[in-house]
Amino acid sequence: MIDEDRSALPAQGVPAERVLAEIRELRGMDRPTHGGRLFAYVYDPGVAGLEELAAAAYAESAHVNGLDPTAFPSLLAMENALVGAAARLLGGGPGTNAPAVVGSVTSGGTESLILAVKTARDARPEIDEPRIVVPASAHAAFAKAAHYLRVEIDSVPVDLDTLRPAVADVAAAIRPETVLVVCSAPSYAHGVIDPVEQIAEVAAAAGVRCHVDACFGGWTLPYLRRLGAPVPAFDFAVPGVTSISVDLHKYAYAPKGVSVLLHRDPALRAPQYFAYADWPGYTMVNPVISSTRSGGPIAAAYATLRHLGDDGYLELTRQTREAVRVLADAVRGVDGLRLVAEPASTVVCFTTTDSGPDLFVLVDELAARGWHTQPQLGYAGLPRSVHLTVTAAVAPRAAEFGPDLAEAVTAAGVTGPVTLPPELLALAGALSPEALTADLVAGLAAGLGLGAGGGLPERMAPVNTLLDAAAPALRERLLVEFVSLLQRPSY
Ligand SMILES: Cc1ncc(COP(=O)(O)O)c(C=O)c1O
């Protein structure tokens, strides 16, 4: 950590150059956002000059307010262009046979999903206790939406081999109170595409909306299909699909803060709006959760899409697909590892076999070699796994992964598995979240090297092993406590 005075409100203002130098110094603590060695959180096309363009476009519109499109038509024009591009990519108009898809730009995938659930809920005001049908592989943002909106979830398990829900199970989960059925194209954790056509059909037969969460990979699937990959129907070409979300800050490679929520037609979108005139100020009309909205992310996304163009995305997807192939081959070539799913999109997900090393130790060994992967905890019969979100910037480095992976597996074998005190593991397995006291959390955090200073320990395997031993409810509680230890104001 940086220890000199870094108050955000110093007694005297700090010169611009120094402030920027400070930010650059702080950024030095972060994982590398470029270079194709970070397999989560960031989406890097590795295109020279793109970031500068997006930053300039952002600056141009940062102070424009999306609150009132009549005051700032520039923003409306760019938003409509982004929605049009997403709609066209995903089977919407123009054209007489394509649905007249409409949509909004939101701040991210989670906001798009919350709004998809809100829209479906508010379209059925006669239902007192609305419910949504959600495959267990769907993104956690649906749980957040349900929590915020007081909607119940009917979770559908996924097959442990295909990692997809059975259509019959989805159909059986639909009840008279169901307002929305959800599927993923693809899922985040494993990159698997749900059987959208069949799920949308059972939803439509029941008169229920069907949302396709294409936040993660919706921008690449059409290009993968054009490149010859066997991508099943997942977009508005499927009759029962009523809404789709796609994040521009993922595979459209725009800076953070932009997702698009599309509806098949304006009537389906109508309940998304919130309007309020019953106060003395301006009448508030909001299509999304935020009211004041910066134009920065929208302008940056607009610049990114226009600069890369359709041909640019096709080429970036080609590079990404090649990188996925190389990484998956690397996994196949190392004893002790296996792919959790054959890559169907841009995710490589692997786990260890019985003769393999401790997965969490392996993740640390990869990090020690400069490869930052995302460990996923075991869940509902699914094994712990390593998730790689593969972007175009990985392509030039992909060939280096295999040798490092083999070396990391050997090193993890030499290190041996994490051995936490058995009583600690037993506690993690048995403790109910309610029994967790502040002292217990502080003790655990200190023991694991977490907390004070904001830094994480170099080796995360003990932390992951402890979390893996805990049930989801305890994982949630522990991580909330750990994160709240980190979120302390620096006065
Ligand atoms: C499939 C899917 N849906 C939704 C989200 C949530 O997106 P965000 O983090 O932009 O809120 C993600 C994020 O990874 C995702 O992969």
From TrEMBL:
The keyword Transferase applies. The keyword DNA-binding does not apply. The modification N6-(pyridoxal phosphate)lysine is found at residue 250. Gene3D superfamilies: Aspartate Aminotransferase, domain 1, Type I PLP-dependent aspartate aminotransferase-like (Major domain). InterPro entries: GrpII_AminoAcid_Decarb (IPR050477), PyrdxlP-dep_de-COase (IPR002129), PyrdxlP-dep_Trfase (IPR015424), PyrdxlP-dep_Trfase_major (IPR015421), PyrdxlP-dep_Trfase_small (IPR015422). Keywords: Aminotransferase, Lyase, Pyridoxal phosphate, Transferase. GO terms for molecular function: aromatic-L-amino-acid decarboxylase activity; pyridoxal phosphate binding; transaminase activity. This is Aspartate aminotransferase family protein. The lineage of its organism: Bacteria, Bacillati, Actinomycetota, Actinomycetes, Micromonosporales.
